[in-house]
Amino acid sequence: MSVQSILEKLNKLISIHEKLLELSKEKTNIVKEGNAEKLQAKLIQERKMVLQLAQVEESRQKEVDEWFSVRGLSNEEATVTNLINNIENDEEKRLLAEKAVYLTEVVVNLKQQEQLNMALIQQSMQFVQLSIDLLSPSLKNINYSKDKEGESQINRSVFDSKA
After folding, report:
1. Does residue 2 sit in helix, strand or coil?
2. Which of 150, 99, 108, 117 has its CA nearest to residue 26?
3. CA dihedral defined by 103, 104, 110, 116, rounded to 10 degrees?
4. 1: pLDDT confidence band, cut at 50, 70 and 90?
5. CB contact at 8 A, 68 and 76
6. By CB distance 3.0 to 4.6 Å, which of 68, 92, 120, 122 could disulfide with 73?
């Protein structure tokens, strides 16, 4: 098992994560627009990419495990850092380190973007809940009031039916 195949898998992981980051940015704009149908379509797209990501990651992990096994090293320590430390070729070591750092940066950016999306969605949900609360009358004040003013409100609707 060569380091080149592991580098190829890292490149695929980087590519998928970059696509997920772009998709996440698109989701941010869709949430700002408030278009639920477009958001649903993006979520389906995202789900497919995440499945693809899981397959590539599993393949990469198998290759790393195999690389460690061929060299008689423990698979329990099969991390990128240990892989870099055990590679003899300086060029491969440099490339692998660069790809690992870049992948980490893309993953961090994706996480930040998704946190922004989550915050926007929570704000949207709070706004909807506030709107519902403002439109619905308080049952405590309407149904259980003892004074005459409360009795006159029992028959009132939130919306004026004559309008």
Report:
1. coil
2. 117
3. -160
4. low
5. no
6. 68
